[in-house]
Amino acid sequence: MKAEILILLVSGSISLFLCAIWIQILRKLKAGQFILGYVEEHKDKSGTPTMGGLAFVVAVALSAAAFGLYSDKLAAVAITFGLAYTLVGFLDDFIKFHFKRNLGLRAYQKIVFQLLIALFAGVFCYLNDLTAWNIPFTSAQVDLGIWSIPLVAFVFVASTNCVNLTDGLDGLAASVSLWYFAAMFVLIGLLAGQAQTQLAKLCLILCGVLAGYLLYNTHRASVFMGDTGSLGLGGFVAAISAFSGNLFYIAIVGIMFVCSGISVILQVIYYKRTKKRIFLMAPLHHHFQEKGYAESKIVYAYSLVTIAAGLLCIYFV
What we know:
The chain has helices spanning 2-29, 53-66, 73-99, 107-127, 148-166, 172-191, 197-217, 226-243, 250-253, 255-274, 284-290, 295-315, and strands spanning 132-134, 141-143. By secondary structure, the chain is mainly alpha-helical. The longest helix is centred in the N-terminal third of the chain and has 28 residues, at 2-29.
């Protein structure tokens, strides 16, 4: 337990320090977020520094080095995939900043980059016999063999985009992700034991750095994570879950990520067919905001659901 506490304290401290420095740099560079015009409630947030995710992702990399995670193949590769998606997000954010607009990479460009990384992840799982997946609420596993390649690729693309869509309110994506990694830390310990200790440590590091980052990101936010942070977090969610055999748990513990993605898909499909909307605004958290709920209350509710889903999964292990 002392080792786990030390990981949380060290990673959290590194994140606090790096975020404080990075925010000052972003302010000097005037790297502010350009808010979409139709999000009326967020107009006063225009100009808030973005790309804050770079600080906590670097904190993950430094903390992992401090605790020797790079000596473990799975942990090192998981970090690599998290960094790869962070790079895609950073490119997207940099284009927005450089050209002073809300749109960065074109949708097809972003998907191509995401898909290429995802396919590498699928092949990695197949070549390293990471093709057996725990089935939630049972003690059973299913081994999909070569079919794991498209499954893993799909999960990586879906996870990164769903986490990205969840990043719409102050502290929302970071809070939900923190509780997701906390639940995954316990699940890895219960389902894999000592075999994946380093992946479990990576979960703790992510909890620590997000806790540090949230000091600057809770309402009212001093910095936004941007696509740099949200795509990076999505990469970590997918990589840790896939490499630990807990791929299917994303749909349950990450239920709020799923809701963000599905709400957008349903809204688009329904509107194209009927010219009417299911939600007042998508993703789902904007619907609740349009209903009059405060940002802090929505963030709390999303976190509470994630905690409950995690506890439910842990209870039935």
